[in-house]
Amino acid sequence: MGDQQRADVTAVTSQGADASSSFSALLRNLWRAQVRVTRSAAHLPEFPGSQVDLLRLLIEAGPLTPAELADRLRLARPTVSNVLRDLRGSGLIERRQAPDDGRSVIVAATDRAREILDTFARTRVAAIEAVLGRLDADDRARIDAAIPALERLLAEFDREGAEAGSAAP
């Protein structure tokens, strides 16, 4: 490979890395901005992502043991214990005896947790619609046109995550 070809490959790789970094930063900032606007509009408390993820899992899957939560969320058990402690203190989960094993405990989301997450979901959609409505028609069309590619990108990440998960010991 000649010097010019190496320079071309380096430039393309650098541009790709720059685009990937910019895209990653944009996604992170878009997520933070919509969360901030949604929380403010709905007057919702701020929860760390680990608490939201745990509550969503409990709402989707139903009551689980702390060990099942740790496995499904791929978190260490002490981390899950700390998150559960904080959520219980906020009245967002309840602990009960497992029906099939009196020695085990299961954890369930409370109605208050369901209300908060439902309110967040409804308010988020309204906030996104309002912000999109302030963009011009060309920008909205570009965003609409990008959705299928973004869905394919998500599918690729899901596939890679599944492959990495199946390769774990």
Task: Describe the 3D structure.
With about 170 residues, this protein is mainly alpha-helical. The protein folds into two domains: about 45-135, Winged helix-like DNA-binding domain superfamily/Winged helix DNA-binding domain (Arc Repressor Mutant, subunit A), CATH 1.10.10.10; about 135-169. About 75% of the residues lie in helices and about 10% in strands. It is built from six helices and two strands. Strands 1-2 form a two-stranded antiparallel sheet. A hairpin with a 2-residue loop joins β1 (about 95-100) and β2. α1 crosses α5. The chain is globular, with a radius of gyration of 21 Å. The chain starts with a helix and ends with a helix. The mean pLDDT is about 85.
What percent of the residues sit in helical stretches (DSSP H or I)? over 70%
CATH C-level category of the largest domain: Mainly Alpha
CATH architecture of the largest domain: Orthogonal Bundle
For the residues shown, what is the average pLDDT? 87
Task: Kindly report the name of the CATH homologous superfamily of the largest domain.
Answer: Winged helix-like DNA-binding domain superfamily/Winged helix DNA-binding domain
SSE string: HHHHEEHH
Low-confidence stretches: none
Q: How are the strands of the largest sheet arranged?
A: 1-2
How widely separated are the two ends? Answer: 41 Å
The gross shape turns out to be globular
How many domains would you count in the coordinates? 2
Over all CA atoms, what is the radius of gyration?
21 Å
